[in-house]
Amino acid sequence: MTFAALQEQLSEHIYHFNHGNHEAAYQFLGCHKVDQDGVTGYRFAIWAPHAANVYIQGDFNHWQNEPLSHIEGGVWAGIIQGVERSQCYKVGIDHGNGHIEYKIDPFGFNFEIAPKDATVVWGLEDFEWSDQVWMNQQWRKNSVHSPLNIYEVHASSWRRHPDGRTYTFAELADSLIPYVKEMGYTHIEMMPLMDHPLDASWGYQITGYYAVCGRYGTLEEFKDFVNQAHQAGIGVIMDWVPGHFCRNANALAYYDGTPTFEYQDVNRANNVGWGTLNFDLGKNQVQSFLISNAMFWLKECHLDGLRVDAVSNMLYLDFDQGPWTPNEDGSNHNRQGVAFLQKLNTTIKDHLPHVLMIAEESTDWKGITHAVSEGGLGFDYKWNMGWMNDTLRFFETDPYYRPQNFRLITFVFMYQYNERYVLPFSHDEVVHGKKSLLDKIPGSRETQFETLRLLHGYMMAQPGKKLHFMGNELGQYLEWRYYSELEWKDLSFEFNREYQHYMKTLNHIGKDYKALHYYDTEPAGLTVLDADNVEQAVLTMMRQGKAKRDFLIIALNFIPVERQEYRIGVPYKGEYEVLLNSQMQEFGGRWTENLPVMKTEEVPHDGQPYSIVTTVPSLGVLYIKPKRIYGAK
User: Fold this and answer.
1) Annotated catalytic residue: which of 117, 152, 239, 309?
2) Which member of 189, 239, 360, 361 is catalytic?
3) What is the pLDDT of residues 55-82, one digit of tens each?
4) If both were cysteines, with which of 7, 93, 294, 554 could 461 make a disulfide (CB 3.0 to 4.6 Å apart)?
5) Sign of the four-CA dihedral 331, 337, 340, 345
């Protein structure tokens, strides 16, 4: 192919890339097989606007530098014959001062496994998807009214082989997917799977944004994992890090010898707390790179959503620990970051309205899940970090001091519907000395498990979608460790297996009963019956589904004192029965017989026209459902 023909082939792509409007830049930048005039080769195209020269060296040319031609718009390109799939290559960036630095291809689809660092010649091979039933359902489904109970997974440490090897995508498909389905979760959320050199970063310091980490397998094997999950009725979400990237010299950092993907301003570029570099979110080409990357994972890999990491870092100029440069008016809002997130969510929703965009955002920024047209950021959901912190503080408190701290678990009612929330107990809460969920709770082992069942019963009763980090359902005592598997052996101990059975039962109730998810984001879904019984530390509420008959009464007792003859208001006359009692023996509790059917009395209570009288177990939760009622349709 002549230089003129190559330039003509790439010209329109480069124009849109440089104007921040390219939504599939991975289709022209990087390494792609081409067939021109019967001659097969690979086209290499690299964006390096300030490089003096750009070279490709690899297995196919005995690691000798082969120059690329400078195309308009800062792109260097050329076609090399004799290249074969699976061969390795590096990009040589000539700084113009006699120094050539060897880099990865930012758009590479495969990389050598660390500590090796070459890009591997790969391609977007045709993949035979068989998840059309699932995909069609997602296009029709309203996620707001559907159950969303996410199982967060770190692929390296969910399970490991006896010799310490991590599971591959194929092995995870065989074991993780059926486990998640059996346990009643609706989605798997994978911590970042993009290529990263350091296991200790948990995947959050990415080098290869368009490739999966080779320790788990290839891009095709990941697609097969997603395909199998969809066939099993399980959605797949992945953590995505568009705010900052690994500063390793061989990757994106100062790619063409100058600030390329990062900010020109050193204060804005340096992320001191994480030891990374912040993307320049105001640069058109970076916007094309990142938005194309989001579309790549959602379209090419059929992901059901992205959990966007560290959104706060993109919203505030002073979120980091180091020095910062304010706006001209002295303010600290990152206006470029706000505009990028709005553009990102608008673009994705224009093409893929069914996918989930979830923000991990830890401040009180208003409008995270509001429409962009209303000045919001356009996310579907936001992690409710305030609820998580208040809840864990409350449950870490000695039970006899909980009445004085009751507001920690009722304060959420004051802002319940300010955003559309996911309630998260994520990996961040069980690492770095914070202890496992079980170990956070004071008291004997029996008390710890009673309280843990109560904690999750309270969580499921609250409006909002749910997220559990792997291992939370096992009741393991040790913190999460990224370098070893979960404490599966604990399931042979007293209380652990019963607790896992409880979590499975609770998850299926949350999925099967619309009262616990249909109105998660709307006030119609919650009636607080009594949040002021501080002295007895009992909280009662009613969750409502779409139909009037579709409701549950929830009673939670946060201290180890059984409450007998406890009156609870109900909306309709009739009979009520216990759906879930966390203190039943099958769950590791002390009760061998459940409560009998409760008949209403014409005694108004809790703002309701009728009431029932029951026993609320110590450190226990009751889910009560109507058995036979009158006046509701």
Assistant:
1) 309
2) 360
3) 999 999 999 999 999 998 999 999 999 9
4) 554
5) negative
